UniProtKB/TrEMBL annotation:
An annotated GO cellular component: peroxisome
InterPro entries noted in UniProt: 3-OHacyl-CoA_DH_CS (IPR006180), 3-OHacyl-CoA_DH_NAD-bd (IPR006176), 3HC_DH_C (IPR006108), 6-PGluconate_DH-like_C_sf (IPR008927), ClpP/crotonase-like_dom_sf (IPR029045), Enoyl-CoA_hyd/isom_CS (IPR018376), Enoyl-CoA_hydra/iso (IPR001753), NAD(P)-bd_dom_sf (IPR036291)
Domain 3-hydroxyacyl-CoA dehydrogenase NAD binding: 294-473
Gene Ontology molecular function terms on file: (3S)-3-hydroxyacyl-CoA dehydrogenase (NAD+) activity; delta(3)-delta(2)-enoyl-CoA isomerase activity; enoyl-CoA hydratase activity; NAD+ binding
Compartment list: Peroxisome
Protein name according to UniProt: Peroxisomal bifunctional enzyme
Length: 721
């Protein structure tokens, strides 16, 4: 605390000044001392290290000695102070941090500061009176938006909304002290938000009704947004004190809902995967990334276009290369369109100029232009021979030390690297479509990939505002490998009597943004068909006499192949597992043709149709996906269950409030997952994906340990070998 008329209280708990029990205690002590000291005429609260505060300590919510709830009374204490209290917001003021600032009588923010109430994203609501103060300060529509989305508000927007009183470009703390000195002696009543009425709207009821519909629609089964809504609604109907009681009641429901645990697990999982390691001992600790001053993308199909857009948005100069002028011009047009759309979404429309700067985005058909780039991302279609040809070429042309990345969803990184003179520079970077939107980047190291290449790819992910997850090299890597048995089961369920719309509905009710059949129609059935033809599972290379529903002694469903033979490729042809209004249409409608086709198919193959209930649909689809995950962990393809979960949440539309497939398995309980897999496997002995993983069995035998301990059982096992 300073000796002058203005007492300074500095929140200090590195790295983000989270409001731990100790930090809260220090805040309370500081306030009481300032109050008791007659020489103190005003108080200024700021954060250490250029950050106000990231809010309550999230780890505290899962500890048995939960303390977060104590923040509310401290904020009341701030507001009740007879001496003016000014918040100096630098860096971030999030969650409980912003709630502290809302308790202050004045708020000054640095122009680069960001504010928000992101509790909803970790399954909670602002539980320190924020749902009652914010609507009083900025009105119900803006408060509802901030609280139900959790988005971060830049200081300039905060000023427009009236969330802060002033924005400064220079020293925020000094400006706050100046303001504190200025307001000494002025009446504080009008500055106490709890005493203000919530600004009225002419049509409040109708507004709230519509807002609720919107909030529910976007929640996909997540509870927190709706309860955030209820808390704000309470502010419009009740006194401040009653509203606070309602807020606490709703907060406690969320805290014990299970969804908050899942979302908080996902928050920490996303951070844990940044600390990557490989079985050979390479790790984030010892490896340093190389700077990427210039990158190149080869192939301007759907993936390449998205990747170029992503690089330009990250302000990395890019060379975009195609095999001929016709494809180049098509690619250029598409990229420009994407960039214009992105520029419109961004704050400053002027960004467009930067996108069009030819020195930063160059289109070419000349491989020699790649001589000076630091990193190349090859994004041609999935064909090993073509990829090898390209890698051989670029390893000759690019400067030594350039990183050679391949965007593949399944192909062997080592085989691609074998075509080069520098396999240590080769790495897989699996983007997800649309690549400028989807957050996941699966980063695949091969046998020879250097630790520097991995660190550089991780750094690239960060620059592109994506989550990089480092995984080993196997067919389909982590994401698609776990997806195969899921999709396979969905099709088997159709054979046995279900319908695409029934299966999609169950998985969408579970929380997936889109069910497997709608997804397949969107992605195009022809993609998998081409791959299966390549693998000799269907088409001309299938040996004569192969049974229709069996391959290599295992159950196989030819249904997707038959749909393709009928020209049903999904949305692009207007027909797939569903029918659409036209080719390229997006509204899926159940198709009587398909139902009829399925009935005939079952007759032909003497399959007795049976009713399949929701529980079986869910378990048959999800349990084999998790089962594959246990195999992946046992093989060392990923270094922990968090990796699989981060991949599924960010790349496959897995509902975040269910924490990811491995977290979900842990909440169901591994003994139950195992028992169900055993049951289904006995009923379908010809389906290897249903056979329980040895690692899953081991974990059950070891007494179903918590997820954070799973990997220790694996290392003990391998140590013994
Ligand atoms: C709340 O406030 C409830 C209230 O309403 C009151 C209820 C009564 N707690 O992300 P980073 C750690 S709920 C504990 O890598 P960045 C993080 O794990 C809270 N730890 O950096 C990491 O640790 P490590 C509402 C936290 O610069 C390190 O700090 N607030 C917390 O990319 C650095 O983090 C939120 O939801 C925390 N609150 O991003 C804000 N925050 O180094 C959550 C961070 O060991 N936080 N850590 O891996 C964020 O959104 C980002 O961390 C932030 C910084 C934007 C702050």
């Amino acid at each position: 605390m300073g000796a002058a008329a203005v007492a300074v209280i500095r929140l200090r708990n590195p790295p983000v000044n989270a409001l731990s029990l100790t930090a809260l205690q220090a805040l309370e002590d500081g306030l009481k001392r300032a109050d008791a000291d007659p020489s103190v005429k005003a108080v200024m609260i700021c954060g250490e290290n250029g950050k106000f505060s990231a809010g309550a300590d999230i780890r505290g919510f899962s500890s048995p000695k939960r303390h977060g709830i104590a923040l509310g009374p401290i904020i009341s204490l701030i507001e009740k102070s007879e001496k003016p209290v000014v918040a100096a917001i630098e860096g971030i003021a999030l969650g409980g941090g912003l709630e502290v600032a809302l308790g202050c009588h004045y708020r000054i923010a640095h122009v680069k500061a960001r504010m928000g109430l992101p509790e909803v994203t970790i399954g909670l609501l602002p539980g320190a009176q924020g749902t009652q103060r914010l609507p009083r300060l900025i009105g119900v529509p803006a408060a509802l938006d901030i609280i139900t989305t959790g988005r971060h508000i830049p200081a300039t927007e905060a000023l427009k909304l009236g969330l802060v009183d002033e924005v400064v470009e220079e020293n925020t703390v000094e400006a706050a002290i100046r303001l504190a000195n200025k307001v000494i002696g002025q009446p504080l009543g009008p500055r106490r938000l709890s005493l203000k009425p919530v600004p009225k709207l002419p049509n409040m009821e109708a507004f709230l009704r519509e807002a609720l519909v919107k909030v529910k629609k976007q929640a996909h089964g997540c509870l927190a947004p709706e309860l955030c809504f209820q808390a704000v609604k309470a502010a419009t109907e009740q006194t401040f004190a009653d509203g606070v009681r309602k807020e606490q009641e709703l907060f406690n429901i969320l805290l014990t809902s299970g969804q908050a645990q899942a979302l908080q697990y996902a928050f920490f999982a996303e951070r844990a995967v940044q600390k990557w390691t490989t079985p050979s001992g390479a790790s984030w600790k010892s490896a340093s990334p190389q700077p990427i001053h210039k990158a190149a993308v080869i192939g301007l199909g759907t993936m390449g276009r998205g990747i170029v857009t992503s690089l330009v948005k990250a302000n990395i100069p890019v060379v975009a290369l195609e095999q001929n002028l016709e494809y180049l011009n098509m690619g250029r047009k598409a990229v420009m369109l994407l960039l214009e759309r992105e520029a419109m979404k961004m704050e400053q429309g002027a960004q467009t100029l930067r996108f069009h700067n030819p020195a930063r985005l160059q289109f070419t058909v000349d491989f020699d232009v790649l001589q000076d780039v630091d990193l190349v991302i090859e994004a041609v279609f999935e064909n090993m021979a073509l990829k090898k040809e390209i890698f051989q070429k670029i390893s000759r042309i690019c400067k030594p030390g350039a990183f050679l990345c391949t965007n593949t969803s399944a192909l062997n990184i080592d085989e691609i690297a074998s075509a080069t003179r520098c396999p240590q520079q080769v790495i897989g970077t699996h983007f997800f479509s649309p690549a400028h939107v989807m957050r996941l980047l699966e980063i695949i190291y091969g046998l020879h990939t250097s630790a520097t290449a991995i660190a550089t790819a991780m750094q690239l992910a960060k620059a592109l505002k994506k989550v990089g997850v480092v995984v080993g090299n196997c067919f389909g890597f982590v994401g698609n490998r776990m997806m195969f048995p899921y999709v396979q089961q969905a099709v088997f369920l159709l054979e046995e009597g279900s319908r695409p719309e029934a299966i999609d509905q169950v998985l969408e009710d579970f929380g997936f943004k889109i069910g497997p059949f709608r997804m397949s129609d969107l992605a195009g059935l022809d993609v998998g068909w081409r791959s299966r033809k390549g693998q000799g599972l269907t088409g001309a290379s299938l040996p004569p006499g192969t049974p229709a529903r069996q391959r290599h002694g295992h159950r196989y469903s030819p249904l997707p192949d038959l749909l393709c033979e009928n020209g049903r490729f999904g949305q692009k042809t207007g027909k797939g597992w569903y029918q659409y209004e036209k080719a390229g249409g997006r509204t899926a409608k159940p198709d009587p043709w398909l139902h009829n086709f399925l009935a005939q198919y079952r007759d032909t193959h003497h399959i007795k149709t049976r009713f399949i209930d929701q529980e079986e649909i869910l378990e048959r689809c999800l349990f084999p996906l998790m089962n594959e995950g246990f195999d992946i962990l046992a093989e060392g393809i990923a270094s922990g269950p968090e990796h699989l979960d981060v991949i599924y949440i960010n790349g496959y539309g897995w509902p975040k409030h269910r924490g990811g497939p491995m977290f979900h398995a842990s909440t169901i309980g591994l003994p139950r997952v195992l028992a169900k897999l055993q049951k289904y496997s006995e009923a379908h002995p010809d389906v290897p994906g249903l056979r329980p993983s040895a690692f899953l069995k081991k974990l059950v035998a070891m007494g179903n340990p918590p997820l954070k301990d799973w990997m220790s059982y694996l290392s003990r096992q391998s140590n013994k070998l």
